[in-house]
Design brief:
The chain is mainly α. The chain is built from nine helices and two strands. Helix 3 packs across helix 4 and helix 7 runs parallel beside helix 9. The radius of gyration is 16 Å and the shape is globular. The two termini are 17 Å apart.
């Protein structure tokens, strides 16, 4: 199975719609452990991408690069920067490609995870979006191409379940310490929405 430009455009539409739908939920979750503006960040970012998606080139790498640029211009938030960093990682790997082979997806996600980890100066296990991407990367690596979308969505769910009752130790949420136990990390919630929308699950 290959992921084409048309499939990328359809995924952008689904993710943009999901961010509009989850606007209040993400702001509320972020309000409990952060600035309360994650819904704003994600909605603005996807609106910016949606506005230029029909002009994206056939080169998938360049298309993702332009998406990263659009997201960056829409928001100066730390989460927006991390999202753009992840997109940029995939863009560099896919430069010149007209499509994405499903077999390459786990490594693309892992590469994005590692670049975001480097940019955010964070480690796995801190109850952040990095943990969500780690779960998704490992789950898709073990799945057949036809099951990859479902495996990704289930992995995003499992990451939230596994970390919900752990304290946040990275980013602004770490300030809340023990109070973060029992609360979902807002960045992980956002990634759950992104993964499920992107994969059509």
């Amino acid at each position: 199975m290959t992921i084409t430009r048309d499939m990328l455009l359809a995924a952008i539409d689904r993710v943009a719609a999901a961010m509009e739908r989850d606007f209040d939920m993400l702001n509320t979750a972020d309000g409990a452990l952060g600035d309360g503006d994650l819904g704003v960040t994600m909605t603005r970012g996807m609106r910016a991408i949606s506005a230029m998606k029909d002009d994206l080139p056939d080169d998938i790498g360049m298309a993702l690069f332009q998406c990263a640029q659009a997201f960056t211009k829409s928001s100066g938030s730390s989460y927006g920067t991390l999202m753009a960093t992840g997109l940029m990682s995939a863009a560099k790997t896919l430069r010149g490609a007209q499509s994405i082979d499903a077999a390459d997806v786990p490594d693309l996600i892992a590469g994005a995870r590692d670049k975001m980890k480097e940019r955010g100066k964070a480690e796995l296990g801190g109850k952040t979006v990095l943990d969500s991407l780690d779960y998704v990367s490992r789950a898709t690596a073990e799945a057949d191409a036809g099951e990859m979308a479902r495996a990704a969505a289930q992995a995003a769910d499992k990451a939230l379940d596994d970390f919900r009752d752990k304290p946040a130790t990275v980013g602004r949420a770490r300030i809340f310490g023990e109070k973060s136990i029992g609360l979902d990390d807002p960045g992980m919630l956002a990634m759950q929405s992104v993964v499920k929308a992107a994969t059509g699950q």
